[in-house]
Amino acid sequence: MYLPLDGRGPLHGQLVRSLKEAVLAGRLPAGMRFPPTRLLAQQLGVSRNTVLAAYEQLRAEGFMQARVGSGSYVALPGAPVQPRSEPPTRIAAQSAYARRLRRYHDHANIPGRRAPGTLHSFQYGVPFTNPLLTSAWARALSHAAAYQPPNYPPAQGLPALRAAVCEYLSLRRGVQAAPEDVVICTGTQQAISLTARVLLDEGDEVAIEEPQYFAVREALQIHGARLLPVPVDGEGLRTDLLPERPPRLICVTPSHQFPTGALMSLPRRRALLDYANRHECWIFEDDYDGEFRYDAQPHAALAGLDDGRRVIYTGTFSKVLFPSLRLGYIVAPPGLRDDFISAKWCDDFGSPGIEQAALAHFLADGGFERHLRRTAKTLKQRRDVLLESLRRLTGDAVQIDDSHAGMHLVVWLRGRDAAQGAAFIAFAQARGLGLYSIAPYYFEPPDRAGLLFGYGALSVVEIEEAARMFAHCLEAMAFAE
C-alpha cells in the first residue's frame, strides 16, 4: 500500500493523517480491509507498535472497525474517486499512423454494437453459444494447462496446432497446406494487419469488395493503403471490373461475401486467380465462416484452386467457437512464410500457448467436428425460422437476400430510402428491437434501406418474437405516415 508520510511529528501521527486522507478521498472505500499490522509495518519500514498505535486512534475516531478473527475495515464512506478528466485540448497526432487512426477509426462508434435498452437484437457477430462447448473447452484447457510448458511458444504457433489446422483445411475447405506454411495469429484482424505490413508500403493500391467488412477496410486505410472498391453481385466480386493497372493486393470473401452473402462462382474464381498470376499481385482470402452452408454443397476455398501460390488464406476460430478465444491462422505462400513469421514475432512474440495446445487437442480428438455438426444444425434451424417468420409476417414489405450460409442475412425495406431506413431503425429501437444498417459496410451506400439480420445468438423463440416486433414496427411506422 502506498501511504506518503508528511514528516511532521511522531510516526504514528503521520500514519494516522495519511490513512485518514486516503479514506476521505475515497482511495480506501468503505468496507475495504486494512493491511495486517505486521505487513504494513514491513512495507513502510516502521515498527509494528507504530502501526498498532495508528490503528487504535483510527478506531477511536470512527474511521476503522475491527472484526474479531477477520481484521480491520474502513468504517466511513469517503468521497467518490473522481476520474481523471480529459485535457481541455487534444494533443496533436504524433505520427502519420496516428493521424490515419484518427481519420479512419472511431472506437466509440463501431458499427453493429448492440443498441442499448433493446429486448431483442439482430446484432451481427454475436456467436451461437453452446453449453456443451463450454464444458468441452474447459476440459481441453485443463489438460493443456497441465502439460503445456510455461515458456514462450514459437512465434509461428505450436506445431501440433499447425498440423491440426492443415488436416482440418484439407478435409473441410479443400486447401492442401503444409504445417510449415501456417502461422497462428489472433484472428482475421491480425491476419490483415500482418499482410499489410508484409506486402504494402504507404500509398500502395488494394482492390477491395464493395460492400466490404469495415474492420478490414479500416485496417488497410490505417496502414496507408489506397483502396479501390470493386462491385459485388450475386456471383461475388466483379472480376471484369478489376482495375487495368493491377493493385498490389486484392481482398475477397469468396465463400460467403460479407455482407451480401454472395458465393463467388467458379468462373469468377478462376478469372481472379488468372488476373493475380498475370499481374503478379496477391490475394487475401478471408474465409471467415465457410464452414456453414445450408442449402448447397460447400465450395472449395479459393486457395484450393491456387496453383500459382498467389493467395494468402486466412481463417478464424472466433466465428465457429467464440470470439474471446482470439485464435486464427494464415496459410502463407512459401516465399512469404518467413516474412509472416517475423511480422508475427515483432507484433506479440506469438499467440497464447495454453489456448493453442487446448485447441490442437480439441481438433485432434474430434471435439471440434462434433461442435461444427451441432452448430450447423442449430444455425440452419434458426435461419429457417427467421426466413419463414419474415416471409409470413411482412409479405411484400421487404426483400430478403438469402445467402444460404453463415449467421446473417440482408433485408431491404421496399420503397424506403436510406434516410427512411435510419428513421425506422431508431423507431424500432425505441420499442425494444435492435436493428442494424448495412450502410457502414459501403464506401458509397445505396439510397435504399438495408438491414443486416444476425441470428446466431437468438433462440428460435426469440427469433419468432423479434420477427413479430419487426412486423409490428413496419405496420406502426406505415400507419404513422
From TrEMBL:
Its EC number is 2.6.1.1. Gene3D superfamilies: Type I PLP-dependent aspartate aminotransferase-like (Major domain), Winged helix-like DNA-binding domain superfamily/Winged helix DNA-binding domain. The keyword Lyase does not apply. Pfam families: Aminotran_1_2 (PF00155), GntR (PF00392). It is an enzyme of class 2 (transferase). Keywords: Aminotransferase, DNA-binding, Pyridoxal phosphate, Transcription, Transcription regulation, Transferase. Residues 9-77 form the HTH gntR-type domain. The keyword DNA-binding applies. CDD domains: AAT_like, WHTH_GntR. GO terms for molecular function: DNA binding; DNA-binding transcription factor activity; L-aspartate:2-oxoglutarate aminotransferase activity; pyridoxal phosphate binding. SUPFAM superfamilies: PLP-dependent transferases, Winged helix' DNA-binding domain. In the C-terminal section; belongs to the class-I pyridoxal-phosphate-dependent aminotransferase family. This is Transcriptional regulator, GntR family domain. It comes from Lysobacter capsici AZ78.
